[in-house]
Task: inverse folding
């Protein structure tokens, strides 16, 4: 059994990680970290866990935790993982960081978009960007995984084959994304109150959302050049789910067949990526509770653009599910161990 | 492997049954019945099943189905199961009927409340009311299980120890229940449109809902006498969940300790019933996606009444989950096989 | 023009009061009080008011306000109005208090249920309980109006004719109420976050909600004796609306005709009370945005009980609308001035 | 008083028209047309109208209606208005058509996108596209108004000054729009059931939605050339509201000041258009129930694009409110008569 510790287990992503690990046949949770709820029973913080989890919350002593665990998940605010990690810890346990601390290779870009000083830039080079379908081989050998953001996972996977195969102009990319409210976290903030979110939709972080450079970096690798994109997130009155609607100019002469072939080439064998048929577009309800990414697309002859759409559950493939997928890779398990979840509908 | 067939697999309860059986380690689905979608691919009716279910929908030929399956689930409108069942079928396969056809022992009561003629009253006597926590032993030996209604499961389990132990006056019982909209089914009806349900709450079937006699019969057995209750269902703008708020006059001198002891005596060993602590009341979000029943209560010294509350997921413990629980009993499996589902939140 | 000041104008009830007074032909707002947002532009706190309200928020100096206003609305937490009111203020301006400070005649009951010391019990006797349909004449002559609670307005109006005409046993009354989330206020609290409220229903304050003694007192006046009732509020995932489902034992021999006649006698001429036809029950969607109370009922021959149901918009008839109705009475205007609002659907 | 008749008064747009006209000081409704509900009491179709509307539904005899009414609103499926209109009717009454029949000047384009034959193309030339802020003067003189679509109203108004002033490349325009579910109409269709829409977001009509050519035509007039755009609508689990997020390449050197000046020049005096301040973006909740259009924008220096966002209530400014605004213009009333509605929040 893999012994897993979670720092930040009482946020929504942390709790989803608990749910997934509890149902994982080869992992057990040994540490429910939560700075805000130290000594509280976990089942009192999340009453769905009543009589399922019998533990109390612990602090974020990563030093001690690394002695007890084989893998540490940090589902914490930006900056915390970078401030705690060190050589000893990394030698004892694998770290899967769900924050952004090790996602961006250029520390200056990180510090500019996140507005904080990076406390351990020396570990950035070795950190592997944990988008399993793209970086599978590197992940297997890593000590430190930078688990991708929710919007980024959905956006990159939706566009990757198009960019990689140079079917679109990467500088023309515009991503209009929509997220359920669990993405905003469990903080008690006025804008996240039921009556403020319900019956409304809004954009936020227009031209300035922090997932932008992460998408640009990863799609830039695929394109083989630096790119700048537009990314606009929106808040939707639902609990879970991300839908990314991406637009790009097609290279001259590109056909639907070529596009489909590219998606098939990259994703045809992927368990978690479901390429939808012609004329079918993803809807977040069909992936809820699962680690699937549903992808569909439509070429527009009139404008010579492609509209590519992807849907994920932001807490699963966008956070906890992908983290478990990374854990499976790190420990040599079949990648979908504990993740063969049938989406819950309605 | 238990071979399972589902008649009515494209309703919400039928689809939930598919989800649960797909994740059941000892069952496989051999027949996706759906009168409305014969020959359609199941994954096109429910796109969450894309690349998970590869079958096409079949008709409701129970004769043929009984030759292929060990157990038949009928998740169909009232009257269908009663019109199809016969001795040969029952000798070949177990039947778990999710409709009301075999729930009520007095066929006249059934015919009055449901307004239809019962086509096979000869099987009513042998049918076992499949409320597992109450009728476990009888279920193991049955050929025909009448799977309880969603409101009834929640209402009866919430009140059973109080009535059985004569802690309350059973004639004083009032149940005010609230259900998510999946309980209304997948029929394309104006009252179930998003804009008609959203942002509103209403009562329906006031004094006349069909689950009333079912609750009365079962609680009557517990009371040892015929009883009449008030039951009022309400429609809530959410997908899943039932909350039953039940009121009853306490017998003189009954204390909180006695009440808690009664609940503990009946439910203390039950895997699926979670008795909440003092001052904690059930919320549907904490059971969503699981087979749990959460129960809490509060004595009111001022009025000498008790308020007992229960919450279930209407599609799981209120339908498909309980049906699988019954299947497990019928086939000698541990009762929670395939049902150790962690509730999904948020 | 009536000059109106609002203390607590940035809560949900306060903001609804702003909306209604802005559309009132004979009132103008001269003071947008808000302790939390002093000096902020009101339109930045509520962006629906952008370019409609040009004022900045002021503090809660009731002394000064009473010199500028003809009527003061206090939409503030319990205790504040009682701590500010004095003889000079009352001589200068009418006060309509939306808090509970002056609703309960027995100060000991108030202090017990609310857990705070009443700062000005000397004004309790003269305060008039502002349930317009019941206390219309007293309201016209008052200086200080105790505007009823949201649950209480709905509950009392639903039951009043039954109790007053002794058609039911008042000691048997059970009220099971359901409220939209705006009733929980605009405070940034975890239980009111979107993801915590959405897709769930729960009871709260079981046997202990503060509106209980208020309902008991008012229905007690109607009954001519002290009564104790059960009242259970529930939180529903919707913005607005209260539905009260009330149960009571019918006095022997009471018929549907008698019940309907009683409702007609008391409410037949009321503009804001809409008595629904036989077999029709209220739904909150049909009153949203309006000051209407929709009432329906059903006798149950089997149990000799009545189920009476009422629906209001908690922010209108349950708070701001009723406050304006009281203002109209205080200033000799037709009671529905500025309140002839067509419910907004969907 | 203007005598108004409505054909199609029992759809969501028709009902909203009823709500607005009931509160209009200079209009009265003389004809509640509804092919589906002929002879039904209107208040039984929409119970919010109980005791407010006392009429029964009539058929769609436009001939007869034109003798009784000064203005006829057709809130009907595509093709109906075109099949009924004739010279006599137009000479007797003004027609405001909420369908698409007269919105597109090129009948071939209409017939291609809508897939039906136009029954009275001879009236297309004289029909005025009823986007009041753009075509105000022509509307005053018209007999036949083509009331714009909901997505189109929001999209065109959001982009008009940018295109008209040549601040952006019109061929680069991409509009990603999100709509509440009332836009899907009141038909009893499976995809519009509560459980199918709730907790999900999806795109639909990708590259093929019928509002596309309407936007292209109107923005083409502004651009002075034919343009092709991408328009992608999405369904959001909320009742009302449209948010349009529009992207376009800025012409070289265009500054935020120039953009703001352009919006101010066109909209500075408009009652219904609220240009938001820098860094503030529209949210549908702030316009709900009102005829406002909230517009905000953000320049992106990194990509040299602009993101312009607009929000409306799809049933008001996107349908019934704009229809009343057109009526006001047709009859020489101040444009906001009966439309000074404060948005309802929450």
Result:
């Amino acid at each position: 059994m893999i012994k897993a510790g979670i720092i930040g287990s009482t946020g929504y992503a942390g709790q989803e990680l608990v749910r997934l690990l509890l149902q994982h046949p080869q992992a057990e949770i040994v540490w429910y970290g939560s700075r805000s709820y130290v000594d509280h029973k976990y089942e009192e913080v999340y009453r769905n866990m009543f009589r399922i989890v019998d533990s109390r919350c612990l602090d974020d002593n990563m030093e001690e935790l690394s002695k007890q665990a084989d893998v540490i998940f940090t589902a914490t605010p930006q900056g915390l993982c970078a401030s705690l990690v060190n050589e000893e810890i990394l030698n004892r346990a694998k770290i899967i960081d769900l924050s952004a601390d090790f996602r961006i290779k250029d520390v200056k870009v990180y510090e500019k978009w996140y507005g904080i000083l990076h406390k351990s830039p020396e570990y950035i080079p070795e950190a592997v960007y944990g988008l399993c379908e793209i970086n599978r081989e590197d992940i297997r050998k890593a000590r430190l995984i930078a688990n991708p953001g929710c919007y980024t996972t959905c956006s990159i996977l939706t566009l990757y084959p198009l960019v990689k195969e140079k079917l679109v102009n990467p500088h023309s990319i515009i991503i209009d994304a929509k997220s359920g409210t669990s993405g905003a976290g469990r903080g008690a903030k006025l804008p996240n109150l039921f009556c403020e979110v319900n019956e409304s939709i809004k954009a936020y972080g227009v031209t300035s959302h922090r997932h932008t450079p992460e998408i640009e970096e990863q799609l830039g690798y695929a394109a083989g050049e630096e790119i700048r994109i537009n990314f606009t997130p929106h808040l939707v009155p639902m609990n879970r789910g991300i839908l990314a609607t991406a637009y790009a100019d097609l290279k001259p002469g590109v056909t639907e067949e070529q596009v489909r072939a590219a998606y098939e080439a990259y994703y045809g064998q992927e368990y978690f990526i479901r390429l939808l048929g012609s004329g079918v577009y993803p809807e977040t309800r069909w992936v809820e509770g699962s680690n699937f990414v549903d992808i569909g697309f439509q070429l527009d002859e009139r404008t010579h653009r492609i509209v590519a759409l992807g849907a994920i559950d932001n807490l699963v493939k966008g956070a906890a599910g992908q983290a478990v997928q990374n854990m499976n890779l790190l420990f040599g398990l079949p990648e979908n161990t504990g993740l063969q979840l049938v989406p819950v509908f309605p």
In short: Residues 129 and 146 of chain A are 5 Å apart (CA to CA). The radius of gyration of chain A is 19 Å. Chain A has twelve helices and 13 strands. The interface with chain C takes residues 12, 181-182, 186, 188-190, 192-199, 237-239 of chain A (CB under 8 Å).
